[in-house]
Amino acid sequence: MSVVTRFAPSPTGYLHIGGARTALYSWLHARASGGPGDGRFVLRIEDTDRERSTDEAVQAILDAMAWLNLEHDGEIYYQTRRFDRYADVIDRLIDEGKAYRCYSSAEEVEAMREAARAKGEKPKYDGTWRPMPGKTLPEPPAGVDPVIRFATPLDGHTVIHDLVKGDITISNTELDDLVIARADGSPTYNFCVVVDDMDMGITHVIRGDDHVNNTPRQINILKALVGDDGDLPVYAHVPMILGSDGKRLSKRHGAVGVMRYREEGYLPEALLNYLVRLGWAHGDQEIFTREQMLAHFDIENVQGGASTFDPDKLLWVNQEHLKMTAPQDLVGELRWHLARLGIDGVDDARLTEIAAIQKGRCKTVREMAEQSLFVFQPVTEYEPKAVKKHIKTATPDLLAQVRDGLAALDDWNGEAASAAVKQVATDNEVGMGKVAQPIRIAVTGGPVSPSIDDTLALLGRDETLTRLDAAVSEFAALKG
Ligand code: GLU
């Protein structure tokens, strides 16, 4: 049997860290099962809660899934476009006596629950409108639109075979006759999920363990539709992610939408790597490429306990990925970050060069972009404080010598450029600082930049010489 998994977010906000991990596990389980192209990964937008669902949230989720490159198969399903289908299934269940119209008012239902509580029982609907052999139902009240309730089995057990939590058994007497359609005809959440999972042929439901309570209800409805011997999906309820204070991860922990991590300069591969390890391990390996995750991931090895989100570790994983990613594969993210800083239209070759120099010295792509800005921004002024401190009467002459040394280099690279700079310091019997700081100010306008090798390598020969020329005359005028 080939595997079909799904990710089924409710579009009430952005894709958060927990949702992204669920999506990743579902994607991995589909893609890692039985070789490429075998499993299917379905994306379903659960937008039936019309008050809380928004188009912006749908878009935010799709953007985040695209950025993470968790590609789904086939069309994207929207529950709001499937209402006719849900209505048909509800009619079928009523016809088969597996669901029924209930005319009890909200007050009556509350009173039933109260009565059950008073007897020390679980608050439940008392079955007034449930058809039973030999029972005569009350006359439907005029002018009342009924809700539709599912006739939950009155005895027996429902067993969840959970790949993460093991078997969970619930007595059906604990379960209410769930409302599956409201008085206005709209289907309810648990019902839509069941019809969808059935229609979409889902074999594995992988989701957060906040849904465990829904599962026995969903299994009973599903059994009513496919029969007791019909195929049921296998469930895997993934434990939640906690913040460092042991509370459920939330905005307070800075863990907001996935795309915030993009803004902060994380690589999608690094975020996925970090997320896959939150609750799953393969020996003591920490760093995984996407291919390695696909090779080793096994949903049955997901651990049952909650895991704790650790931003420092995420940053470390990101840095490791920056180091191991080929410079040309960083171009897309670097371009995106530079564009946010107002720098557009840089060609791939230039960005590859920059990535090659910066990737070993930065923790994030955002930092790479910020620290490369000087390459694209002409020097319009020299920081007065830096000039006062570092530009002396001898500086223009030293810089002119540096300029000539650099112009004479056969090959332009950081090492050669830095050797030429050192040569000038040696020839003039001055410390490196007397030469290096003025060069920094000359080519960036200020005293802070990557090492002199990297700074000059990033700028390139032409731009370095142009900026040095300009600084020589500017500083000469200043000190002359
Ligand atoms: N729509 C649900 C959520 O966003 C997920 C439901 C499911 O996976 O069954 O929490």
Structure description:
- The protein has 480 residues and is mainly alpha-helical.
- The protein folds into 4 domains: 4-77 and 241-314, HUPs (Rossmann fold, 3-Layer(aba) Sandwich); 82-238, Rossmann fold; 325-376, Helicase, Ruva Protein, domain 3, CATH 1.10.8; 384-479, Orthogonal Bundle (Arc Repressor Mutant, subunit A), CATH 1.10.10.350.
- It is 46% helix and 10% strand.
- It contains 20 helices and 12 strands.
- It has a 3-stranded parallel sheet, with helices on one face. Strands 4-5-8 form a 3-stranded antiparallel sheet.
- Helix 18 runs parallel beside helix 19.
- The model has no long low-confidence stretch (mean pLDDT 94).
- Glutamic acid is lined by residues 8-10, 46, 193, 207, 211.
Query: Mind telling me which CATH architecture of the largest domain this is?
Result: 3-Layer(aba) Sandwich
| Annotation field: number of helices | 20
- Write down the CATH class of the largest domain: Alpha Beta
Shape annotation: elongated
**Approximately how much beta-strand content do the residues carry?**
5-15%
**Percentage of residues in helical conformation:** 40-55%
Mean pLDDT: 94
> Which fold name fills CATH's third level, the topology of the largest domain?
Rossmann fold
Write out the distinct hetero groups bound to the structure: glutamic acid
- The count of β-strands is 12
Gyration radius from CA atoms, angstroms? 32 Å
The poorly predicted ranges are none
Q: Structural class of the helix and strand makeup?
A: mainly alpha
